[in-house]
Amino acid sequence: MAKTTKRNQKLNDGLDREKLYTVADAVKELKSRSTVKFDETIEVSMNLGVDPRHADQMVRGVVSLPHGTGKTLRVAVFARGPKAEEATAAGADKVGAEDLMEDIQKGNIDFDRVIATPDMMGVVGRLGKVLGPKGLMPNPKLGTVTMDVKAAVEAAKAGQVEYRVEKAGIVHGGVGKVSFEEAQIAENVETFINAVIKAKPSGAKGTFVKKIAMTSTMGPGLKIDVASIEAS
Questions:
Q1: Which residues of 56-75 are buried (b: 16+ CB within 10 A; e: fewer)?
Q2: Residues 133, 123, 108, 139: is their CA dihedral positive or negative?
Q3: First-to-last C-alpha distance (Å) of the chain
């Protein structure tokens, strides 16, 4: 039987694992129990009543959090000419065309988001087997295939979060840092959850949001009262 460490015992001391928390109460618990020396990420996980193997039950989208994530995304942009200059001026970390494609083919994937102008999708398409499995392929529905590269780069840098349901029907995302104010974390969490709820696909039947949990990088997992979110 696995032995519980002193740190875990302290983390779980006085914690009711079966209790359903409001977002505000969960935030207080996670902040008060953070004892590590780095700034932990607050994460939200949602168990949805969907089967993503069916196209009409796929849940995917982006949401801009009001207080950002506390992390600066590294952004790569496929563009040429004035649009490439626009991307660079907006703060993109990598900008290019065939040269960027070749760099990625060599295994240099040191970025978190890929944006492309529509005319560059022929080049980007060759990277489908590389970027696809990592969830990095540009997508018009996510605003990452666009002529407005300036707005797309700025949104990514400002704290835009991309979410996508996994095989088991789970959606999760980082929604801030423990160092944020309680109200800021709570607002980010509620914004993320409500965005996923609004993205309910046409093929979803019955209860859409089954369970919600919150945790920090090294903290305990807390169950969230779904009714308190849907009623807000």
A1: ebbbbbbbebebbbbeebeb
A2: negative
A3: 42
pLDDT averaged over every residue in the chain? 90
- What is the chain's length? 232
Q: In this structure, are residues 156 and 113 in contact, taking their beta carbons and an 8 Å threshold?
A: yes
Angstrom distance (rounded) from CA 158 to CA 149: 14
Averaged over 42-71, what is the pLDDT? 93
3 state SS of 91: coil
Give the phi and the psi of residue 174 in degrees, each rounded to 5. Answer: -80, 130
Residue 39, classed as helix, strand or coil, is coil
Within 10 angstroms of residue 134's Cβ, the number of other Cβ atoms is 10
The yes-or-no verdict on residue 6 having pLDDT over 80 is no
Q: What is the pTM of this model?
A: 0.82
For residue 209, give both structure tokens: 């949001």
- What value does the mean pLDDT take over residues 138-164? 92
Token readout for 38 is: 């780095």
| Digit-coded pLDDT (tens) for 118-143 | 999 999 999 999 999 888 999 998 89
Give the C-alpha distances (Å, rounded to integers) separating 71 from 68, 175, 176, 224: 8, 10, 8, 24
